[in-house]
Amino acid sequence: MAEPKTLEQYQDEIAQCVRCGACQAHCPVYLETGREGSVARGKIVLAAAVLAGEAGLDERLREEIGLCLLCGSCVVKCPNRVPTDAIVGALRRRITGEQGLSPLGKGVAALTGSKPLLKTLLKGADLLAPLLFKTIPATSGLRLRLAPEALKGRSLPPIPERTLFARVPEFLEGESDKPTVGVFAGCGLTYLYPQVGEILVRLPHRLGYSVFLPKAQGCCGMPALSSGNGPLIDTLTQANAGAFAGRQLDCILTACASCHGMLTASATETGNSLAAELIDIHVFLHQQGLVERLAALPKWQERIRVTYHDPCHLRSASITRQPRDLLRALPQVDFVEMEDAGLCCGLGGTFTAAHPDLSRAIGDRKVAGLKASGATVIASSCPGCILQLQDIVDRAGLPVKVVHTLELIDQALTGPPR
Amino acid sequence: MLNDRILEALTGIAGAANVSSSTVDRITHSFDATQQQWLPEVVVHPGSAEEISRIVRLANEERIPILPRGAGSGFTGGSLPIRGGIVLVLTRMNRILEIDTDNLIAVVEPGVVTGRLQKEVERLGLFYPPDPASKDFSTLGGNIAECAGGPRCVKYGVTRDYVLGLEVVTPTGSIIHTGGRTIKNVVGYDLTRLFVGSEGTLGIVTRIILRLLPQPEARKTMLVAFAAIDGAAQAVSAIIRGKIIPTTLEFMDASAIDCVRQATSLDLPADCRAVLIIEVDGDRSVLDGQAEKILEIIRPLGVLATRVAETAEESEAIWKVRRSISPSLRAMGPHKFNEDIVVPRSRVPAMIRALEAISHRFGVPIINFGHAGDGNIHVNVMVDLKVPGMEATVQQVLDEIFRITVELDGAISGEHGIGTAKAAYIGMELDPATLAAMRAIKQALDPNNIMNPGKIFPDDSPEKVPMPAPGPSSP
């Protein structure tokens, strides 16, 4: 299996940056800090300086390289499409390669990397919770109602009690003339929002497909990428490839934008891809004609005003139309756009744990647009964004509920309450 | 030059969090969009005019070079610290202080990004017209330093036409106030206009009073394909003669059309050698009439096809043609020399013909597009510098381009400025007496030559005046 690329292997891409500064308009971190080291252009210049031996991997450099959400906003808007997120990943791996993992990075490794994978992940979710929930006030808790103090420094029982794997079988037999699809659930939909994970499994089954949810699947590797742990990315990639191998699959579905982004990027960078094409659930449902089917349902008497937040990792994959088309078609929904729908929520994997204040400041930029939209529900399609958005609306005191798009689709198909 | 005592003094003024002499911060403030790199000695992010005044006083006493920096997105080296010293980054001073809807005025700090101000005033039905291609990231302070333009200048003019007053820290540390809040003001010299376009060599702008307009109700976009560049150029003059001033009048020559043919969904006729993108704005009720009148005027001039956008999406599709030029240029050569010459409108065809001849003579692709309405042509010389002798060829090509520009009564820069990139050529346009007058002003305001030294004036620029660096996308 090919390893993730080294910084040297990105030499050509680094040279493609013409320092125009266009990234400044799109970097959520730069918009907050206004400092050149925060933005893609500054980081590229630093990467070039490291390669040229003009800058060492000192504390100040680590600090600047740490200030990246890996959201990819800059890449999409870059006139030369310089892959700054991948270059930052390579730079972080170089730092950990020379200096070892940061305490946070060690935490991630302990959670997502040890063997056996499955067991670790179960435990991982418990341990990951305090990491992720560090910034969530007691009042919010994302329906989990867990105070940070309660989470601090100890392993907790699985949250919620039944994980996705306990809710659905590994294989659901569909109609005989329909192929089998795989499901890559990811940590968020397995442990934090298993009710959404369950819809991800049951919806394609409802459409006639057989569904395979291998229990041997693990973390997509995003936290490992974020903390610069190259060997761990490699381990996880191999484990996930193995989990889906040996079965004839039409495609593999995800409903987590970050997993989608990570697995796609990893396949591009290393050539290691899963056994079948990875497809975002919205794109899949769109292809299946669900928009027309939903639009044909009788409109509900009482409808909810819903807006949508673009997860960075779907937006940068140009998946913005399909979730909206689905939402617009829902019989119980009046869809409204909000300003800055594409602005990053500020979670950024381990970013929020390393820079909680900055993470929140970035997230708070969503509030004005959300308020102005008048929506009472905000839908998104990434558990990370959902986690962060709930924190944002709770702190702003907005009476807004955060849901996964799939929850609204499921609600529509179930029908109005009697 | 810089010692611990001075660093301590800077820290005392701006705070430890806003002063850094670390290698990392020096590197991240060593460049701009010219891709050249010169390390400063210290980077300071000041928070107020008072802090800046104290820092400049210190620099002046200690004879330390100092230069202001906004987004660092200039094309001519205006924010390169070529003599080291202090880089003052103004991004912290990014407040919109006031939008006065009675007097149509905005008061802002220099670090405000142009596009952000536009968005804010548009919410109130107002309009700040200057629209450099970098408006989403360049700052108003930087726009003022370079007197930025943009496509809308045909109708609305450039940055200088919207600056009513400034607060400036001079190179000796005084805080002065030029102009004011009124359209009319003839009290003393017009220092406001002196500072606009001064490229950070005369002082640091710390507060800006801008003139606003009511926002036009609607706009209408058209794309017109011509059989020859002459027809397109005559069309520009004919429209203006017809007493219509469009908001924008952008053109692409045959070389630019060839570049974008693949990149766009719009069908351009195969024999199309020039394209004009015309936009008019104003009251909805008059726009259809204006569009028809324009098409009527230009019909006899070799028009192959016209397309009038009926919806915002169709308008966007037309603009996409224009915007796809820069990214598609890369295929023509890895290194781009992007010049922004300007000639009187009527001389555009002559200039384009001259550029075609130069391209042919030296065997290098030259792609031309830009703001035909005001004669501002973006000339992109596309080469591979790894080819032996290419640097010398480029030098000759640029010399020739600038020579002809001046011959045609034009200017060697319309909106990017001189900086370091064009300092060597300034003498082609300005006679010695004029240059001497400019020098006298610089000397009077900056006796110790500490404020952004090495810019504009040729003998003052880096040791051997460097080649203008290959640049990125252009407006």
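qc> DSSP finds 24 helices and nine strands in chain A.
qc> done
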